[in-house]
C-alpha cells in the first residue's frame, strides 16, 4: 500500500510540469487568440444584426444560427477531418483557432447585441439631440455603456472557453488535456492523471474568475466616479 502511494505520488509530481507546460504554451494562447478574434467577430456580427440593411442582418442571423445550432466538436471535426476530403488540409492549431473563433463569435455576438439593446433609448435620443450621427452615438455613447454591461457574460464566456479548448485534443492538438491523455496511456494511471488535469484546469479558472471580479469592480468604481 505504501509503495502504491509512493508510486502515484511520484507520477503526479513528475507529470505536473509537462501537463502545466502544455496548458501554458498551448491552452492559454489558444484561448486568448480565439477569444480576441471571437470578440471582434462577435462585435461585427452584432452590428450586422442591428443594421438596417436586410442582407447584412440575414447573413449575420444565418451565421449565428449555424454555429449556435451545431456542436463545437462537430465543427472541429469538419475543419480538421472533413476538409482534407476536398483537398484542404490545415494544422491542428489552425483548425482549433478557426473553429473556436467562429463558435465564440456567434455566442459573443448575442451577448454584445443584448448589451447594446439594453441601453435606454433616451441615450440615443440625447445623442441625436446634440447633433450626433448614429455612428457617432454608437461609438461615443452606446458602445462604452454596452461594454460595461457585457463584461460579466463575456468573462464567463472566456472562462468557459478555457475548458472548451480540451476538445482540441480530439483533433490531435497537444494541449493540456491531450498531454494528460498521452501520460495516462504510458503510465496506465488514468484516474490520477485526469484528476491532476482537472486540478490544473481548476487553477486556471480560479485565477481567471478572480481577475474577472477585479475587472468588474474596477469598472464599477470608474462608473461611480
Automatic annotation (TrEMBL):
The keyword Cytoplasm does not apply. The chain crosses the membrane at residues 24-50, 62-83, 191-211. It is found in: Cell membrane. It is a multi-pass membrane protein. Its main location: membrane. It comes from the Bacteria. SUPFAM superfamilies: MetI-like. Residues 24-212 form the ABC transmembrane type-1 domain. Keywords: Amino-acid transport, Cell membrane, Membrane, Transmembrane, Transmembrane helix, Transport. InterPro entries: AA_ABC_transptr_permease_3TM, ArtM/GltK/GlnP/TcyL/YhdX-like, MetI-like, MetI-like_sf. Belongs to the binding-protein-dependent transport system permease family. This is Cystine transport system permease protein. It comes from Scopulibacillus daqui. The lineage of its organism: Bacteria, Bacillati, Bacillota, Bacilli, Bacillales.
Amino acid at each position: 500500500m505504501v509503495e502504491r502511494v509512493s508510486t502515484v505520488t511520484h507520477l503526479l509530481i513528475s507529470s505536473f510540469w509537462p501537463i502545466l507546460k502544455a496548458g501554458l504554451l498551448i491552452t492559454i494562447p489558444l484561448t486568448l487568440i480565439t477569444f480576441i478574434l471571437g470578440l471582434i467577430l462577435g462585435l461585427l456580427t452584432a452590428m450586422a444584426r442591428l443594421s438596417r440593411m436586410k442582407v447584412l442582418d440575414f447573413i449575420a442571423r444565418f451565421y449565428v444560427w449555424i454555429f449556435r445550432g451545431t456542436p463545437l466538436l462537430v465543427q472541429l471535426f469538419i475543419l480538421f477531418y472533413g476538409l482534407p476530403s476536398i483537398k484542404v488540409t490545415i494544422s491542428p492549431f489552425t483548425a482549433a483557432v478557426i473553429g473556436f473563433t467562429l463558435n465564440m463569435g456567434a455566442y459573443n455576438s448575442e451577448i454584445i447585441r443584448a448589451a447594446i439593446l439594453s441601453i435606454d433609448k433616451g441615450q440615443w435620443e440625447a445623442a441625436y439631440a446634440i447633433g450626433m450621427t448614429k455612428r457617432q452615438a454608437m461609438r461615443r455613447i452606446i458602445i462604452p455603456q454596452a461594454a460595461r454591461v457585457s463584461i460579466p457574460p463575456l468573462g464567463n464566456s472566456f472562462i468557459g472557453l478555457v475548458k472548451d479548448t480540451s476538445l482540441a485534443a480530439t483533433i490531435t492538438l497537444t494541449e493540456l488535456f491531450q498531454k494528460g491523455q498521452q501520460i495516462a496511456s504510458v503510465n496506465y494511471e488514468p484516474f490520477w492523471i485526469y484528476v491532476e488535469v482537472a486540478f490544473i484546469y481548476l487553477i486556471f479558472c480560479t485565477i481567471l474568475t478572480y481577475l474577472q471580479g477585479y475587472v468588474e469592480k474596477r469598472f464599477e468604481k470608474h462608473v461611480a466616479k
